[in-house]
Amino acid sequence: MIALCAVLCGADNWVEIEEFGKAKREWFDRFLKLPNGIPSHDTFGRVFGMLDPEQFAACFSQWVASVSQLVQGEVVAIDGKTLRGCHDRSNGRGALHLVSAWATENRMVLGQTPTAAHSNEITAIPELLQLLDLPGCLVTIDAMGCQKNIAQQIVDGGAEYLLAVKANQGELHQNIKDVFACWEREGFDQVAHSFQEQVGRDHGRGERRRCWVITDPEELAYVDPTGQWAKLSGVARISYRREYCKESDGKESDGKAPEEAADEVRYYTCSHPT
């Protein structure tokens, strides 16, 4: 219980869990018998090191499902994270890397799957999806999860997907870039698409986000000529432009020399473009 509450409040290593327990000792005494006080960080590490990760993950997911209720269209973000301070050099065990599913509306971790390294997320993500019941949700994953089998698994589970696409996806990434480059020249008004723009300002910097989603069947056939991407309904391009505000002396509001506006472009595939 101590570890669970600590992690829910942002702790991500055994030392932080111990410190959280000590800070909330009076509160924990209302529910737990702690004759020897809050366990040390070493004790937390040893206890969790003896647990079967797969069984623990399954039990955790079942408990979360019993206390949470996903809403239609809720975004579930799947991402990997390496926990700080959890390695065990004496036993030759490296830091624990977890792939987690985060429900953005409920603000709750729905499930986690441990994996040996970041490169193994491709195999860990399908295992995590098997633990989850996500009908009607939108599952977002970074480029590591942009795989045909993962997209198929999400659709088979009654959910929708939004998958980031990077250059290591080869032909898929290039085809999406080609489609957007073509219609940027020709004019987006000549192809089925949607567009949204968001402008904001924070810490003396302006940020402009623009999103195009192309849904034209002919363009999607060019992106996926073999039709292997399950329920592919759109491809998206999001551009980020950060503009640094200058004072009258030509410097930024924090006194530093102004920088040039920075641009960043990202591409996505999606099964539910709206």
Automatic annotation (TrEMBL):
Residues 1-64 form the H repeat-associated protein N-terminal domain. Signal peptide: none annotated. It holds the Pfam family DDE_Tnp_1_assoc. Residues 74-197 form the Transposase IS4-like domain. GO terms for molecular function: DNA binding; transposase activity. GO terms for biological process: DNA transposition. InterPro entries: ISAs1_transpos, Transposase_11, Transposase_11-like, YbfD_N. NCBIfam families: transpos_ISAs1. This is Uncharacterized protein in dhlA 3'region. It comes from Geodia barretti (Barrett's horny sponge).
